[in-house]
């Protein structure tokens, strides 16, 4: 079937299920399966639809059925699962993406299955362990060859698990046994979890959910964290689907465990922080690094050394260094970066993004491979010097796994002296972090939080930096908002974590995302003025001024004393051309703060927009008195004087504008209007000519302004029939 037509139909099925129009969803899904002559899927759909119709009959009789909502979700999931399988079959033959290339390769590998491959791996792992015991040391080339063979098998298994859909009962049983096996390397079990996650993000499969739940209960902290992170991503990507009673029961069982809510809170916060990664990378690239480069000559000169040879300890003690940083403004930027890092922000991605071009990163499996010191590249006779470095790197808590591999591969291209200096600084930072963690009152909690942070960074880097990333459904593209997941919503409300999520989005300027979370909070909590203020501000920032006024009005009703609310509401009302309503708020602000110039100027603007020019003149005189130096009142005051016919005073103030400020094109236009009202036609034409010149010859804009201002000129006695004649006269002279 044509892939574009199928994709459109699949989108409709998903929309129908989301709207609970299951009759239409079944009909369209059945049409797709029949068009592809897939009898198995057609029979499954027919059976599910029959069950759905029975449920409808009971509902039509008014029968009580507490499981109705769950059954409706399950029927919707059956339709979506069926369409996923049809979509996969439709694309399998010739779609050139990495997923389908791998799928086609795996299907050509004879009788290989997940179970048989895992059996081969268990044997290889046992032989490698025995070989390691027999030979003296782990640096022999023979040992390295064995590791290479084992690693090739690991990638095969990763790919097989990734592209197998749906997992069979036998596949799931074999994977469950492997995840529980203490005889397999811990890093390999974690790699299996990553393969389950990656495949589940391609096509939803509840067996993957069940396996991740089992792995979450493991004693291995890394495995548990990886499984929980994958579970959250799969639940979010499959949020339109309902879980079976068995899966829901297993989820409920974990909900009663000690770590569940703590892990959910940590994972949620780490996942939403990914939205800020690109901003952090841009800030480092565009602000911090250029400032450092600017300072380089001064550092070399004042400190009598090059920047590469600076000892961090000496920098902390050197007052000249601090003085340079303060004067350049770089100190504040570095402090901000330090605070971002302390909050778990990803300050390393921009640095390591350039180190992802090694052949190692051409394989998706390697992006998820937990770092371990006995990786083949770090072993063998020629790599003995790399082993101590790899062991040091394995213990480093401040880099995610893919960055550790990047660092190790890049070391091979660094001169020995610089490599030693880098490792010295690296070890110092690691020791410092280790001391901080040791001093923490909650060591286990801190370590687990760091594991979540690095696990999310591993996954995020793949979807942002892999060379063929556009072929993968990116779970981070629209943000990972776990409150959208029905199975997690109750937990999230109970934990009270939503305000933290909303505040993160809001404080970092992600207003659309903040609004989505604020909306959920507002719908499930008591009215709160501060919440409505933030919703109003977020709407104002996203251009929804009408919505902003609505939220500010709610805040105003709950807390009419807030000047902040009144100012922003007045600003929105003015932008919406509702000056009378804005004026009410501005008058209140003026009573509270009589000398506030901005408020007085805005009152004058509202009076002008309502045609109350005489009142506006008095207000602008007051503004000029309060803040004569800025000259902000000169232009509107001169304009109001012109419109009320006080041409002499208007000229006085327009001349002040021309003398005390830098004239803009509107000043020349208004001076022309004034001269025209005074009967000085030649002077008027001269100013109009200056207006066009100031606009770089934009004649059409000038003509539009003349037509718009014609009614105002009529107020001061200018014959409207004269205006087009003046325009033509002027154009002849240009």
Account of the protein in words:
The chain has 734 residues and is mainly alpha-helical. It has 38 helices and no strands. Among the domains are: 3-94, no CATH class; 98-257 and 348-468, no CATH class. Helices cover 73% and strands 0% of the residues. It is elongated. The chain starts with a helix and ends with a helix.
Portion of residues in beta strands equals under 5%
Mean pLDDT: 87
State the end-to-end CA separation. Answer: 65 Å
What share of residues is helical?
Answer: over 70%
Radius of gyration: 34 Å
Shape annotation: elongated
Number of beta-strand segments: 0
Number of discrete helical segments: 38
Structural class: mainly alpha
- Mind describing the biggest β-sheet? none
The unreliable regions are 307-315
TL;DR?
The protein is mainly α and 734 residues long. It is built from 38 helices and no strands.
How is the secondary structure organized here?
Elements: H1 3-18, H2 22-35, H3 39-60, H4 68-92, H5 98-107, H6 114-134, H7 141-163, H8 169-180, H9 186-202, H10 206-216, H11 221-237, H12 245-255, H13 260-273, H14 277-302, H15 312-317, H16 319-328, H17 330-342, H18 349-352, H19 364-367, H20 386-395, H21 401-411, H22 416-439, H23 443-465, H24 486-495, H25 498-507, H26 511-523, H27 529-541, H28 545-558, H29 563-575, H30 579-592, H31 597-609, H32 613-626, H33 634-643, H34 647-660, H35 665-677, H36 681-694, H37 699-715, H38 722-733
């Amino acid at each position: 079937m044509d892939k574009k037509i199928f994709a459109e139909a699949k989108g409709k099925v998903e929309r129908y299920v989301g709207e609970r129009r299951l009759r239409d969803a079944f009909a369209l899904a059945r049409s797709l399966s029949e068009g592809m002559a897939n009898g198995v899927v057609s029979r499954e759909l027919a059976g599910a639809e029959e069950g759905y119709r029975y449920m409808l009959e009971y509902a039509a009789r008014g029968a009580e059925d507490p499981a109705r909502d769950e059954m409706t979700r399950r029927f919707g999931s059956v339709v979506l699962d069926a369409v996923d399988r049809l979509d996969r079959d439709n694309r399998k033959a010739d779609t050139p993406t990495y997923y389908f290339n791998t799928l086609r390769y795996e299907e050509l590998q004879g009788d290989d299955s997940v179970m048989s491959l895992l059996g081969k791996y268990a044997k290889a792992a046992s032989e490698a362990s025995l070989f390691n015991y027999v030979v003296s040391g782990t640096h022999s080339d023979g040992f390295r060859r064995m590791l290479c063979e084992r690693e090739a098998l690991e990638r095969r298994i990763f790919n097989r698990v990734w592209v197998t859909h749906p997992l069979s009962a036998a596949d799931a049983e074999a994977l469950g046994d492997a995840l529980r096996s203490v005889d397999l390397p811990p890093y390999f079990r974690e790699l299996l979890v990553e393969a389950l996650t990656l495949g589940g993000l391609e096509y939803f499969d509840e067996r993957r959910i069940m396996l991740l739940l089992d792995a979450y209960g493991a004693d291995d902290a890394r495995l548990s964290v990886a499984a929980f992170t994958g579970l959250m991503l799969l639940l979010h990507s499959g949020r339109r689907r309902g879980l079976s009673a068995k899966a829901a029961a297993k989820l409920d069982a974990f909900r009663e465990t000690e770590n569940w809510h703590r892990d959910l809170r940590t994972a949620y916060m780490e996942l939403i922080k990914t939205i800020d990664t690109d901003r952090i990378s841009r800030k480092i690239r565009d602000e911090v690094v250029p400032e450092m480069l600017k300072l380089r000559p001064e550092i070399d000169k004042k400190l009598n050394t090059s920047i590469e040879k600076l000892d961090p300890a000496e920098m902390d003690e050197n007052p000249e260094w601090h003085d340079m940083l303060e004067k350049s403004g770089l100190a504040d930027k570095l402090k901000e970066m330090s605070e971002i890092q302390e909050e778990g922000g990803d300050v390393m991605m921009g640095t390591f993004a350039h180190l992802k071009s090694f052949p190692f990163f051409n394989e998706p499996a390697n992006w998820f491979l937990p770092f371990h010191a006995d990786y083949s590249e770090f072993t063998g006779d020629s790599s003995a010097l790399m082993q101590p470095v790899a062991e040091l790197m394995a213990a480093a808590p401040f880099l995610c796994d893919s960055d550790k591999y990047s660092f190790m591969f890049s070391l091979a291209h660094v001169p020995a002296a610089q490599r030693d200096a880098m490792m010295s600084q690296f070890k110092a930072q690691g020791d410092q972090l280790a001391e901080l963690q040791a001093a923490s009152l909650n060591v286990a909690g801190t370590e687990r939080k760091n594991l979540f942070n690095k696990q999310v960074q591993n996954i995020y880097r793949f979807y942002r930096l892999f060379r063929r990333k556009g072929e993968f459904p990116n779970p981070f593209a629209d943000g990972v908002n776990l409150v959208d997941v029905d199975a997690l919503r109750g937990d999230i409300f109970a934990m009270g974590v939503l305000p933290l999520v909303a505040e993160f989005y809001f404080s970092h300027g992600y207003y659309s995302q903040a609004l989505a979370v604020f909306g959920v909070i507002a719908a499930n909590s008591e009215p709160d003025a501060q919440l409505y203020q933030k919703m109003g501000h977020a709407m104002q920032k996203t251009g929804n001024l009408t919505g902003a006024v609505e939220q500010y009005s709610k805040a105003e009703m709950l807390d009419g004393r807030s000047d902040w609310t009144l100012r922003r509401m007045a600003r929105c009302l003015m932008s919406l051309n509702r000056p009378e309503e804005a004026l009410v708020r501005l008058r209140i602000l003026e009573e509270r703060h009589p000398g506030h110039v901005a408020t007085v100027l805005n009152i004058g603007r509202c009076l002008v927009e309502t045609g109350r020019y005489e009142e506006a003149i008095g207000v602008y005189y007051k503004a000029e008195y309060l803040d004569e130096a800025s000259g902000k009142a000169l232009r509107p005051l001169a304009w109001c004087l012109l419109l009320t016919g006080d041409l002499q005073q208007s000229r006085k103030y327009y001349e002040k504008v021309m003398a005390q400020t830098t004239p803009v094109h509107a000043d020349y236009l208004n001076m022309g209007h004034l001269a025209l009202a005074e009967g000085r036609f030649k002077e008027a034409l001269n100013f109009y000519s200056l207006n066009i010149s100031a606009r770089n010859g934009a004649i059409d804009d000038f003509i539009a302004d003349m037509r718009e201002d014609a009614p105002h000129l009529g107020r001061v006695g200018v014959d409207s029939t004269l205006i087009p004649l003046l325009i033509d006269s002027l154009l002849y002279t240009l």
